[in-house]
Amino acid sequence: MSKSFINYSISAEVISSYDEVAINNKIDTEAFGIISDLISNQSMSEFGFEEDLKKYGWTAEDKNNNGQTWLGYTQPQFAHTGNGLAINIPNNKMNVDDWIFSNPLKLRANTRYRVVFYLRKFSEKPELLDIYLGNNATSSAMSTVGASKIEANPDGKYHRYAYELVPQAQIAYIGFAHKVKGKKWLMLWLWMMLDLSMQL
């Protein structure tokens, strides 16, 4: 497993006089490591959305600015396993373009990685998901297409999806894009659990 999501304690000495700290000129703080290190052979990282997305380095983008995008949700009866999931509910919004980005991943460039996730929907209409790789957690930085127009199974149950990604850089982010243009949808729900591993 990746040695990410570790609590650290940091002690720093202030050098600049503008940042002087009273008493002993030192300050203690805490940090939380969010990089998943997948450089070594047979390394693997899992994230089941059991914890706070922001704390663990996951972010979302409402690219079409309609006030709705991906969020973490705790509800065991809806999760694939455990209690957590990520959902997107556009809820009668037009031209959906919502993104969710992984925590930073330390990868071996030009090496195949497998990304596995579980997807479910509640709408009777087609629900499509695209996967990208990029060097930053923004839609504009998602330069490599991993898979496009992945359609959630219409039976309303969780299904496993697996795709291969080949990073061009050592630090990368996975972007999942839920995009629907031109139609007004009633209720769109996409749920997933992520599993990433190196393929030799």
UniProtKB/TrEMBL annotation:
Superkingdom of source: Bacteria
Listed name of the protein: Carbohydrate binding domain-containing protein
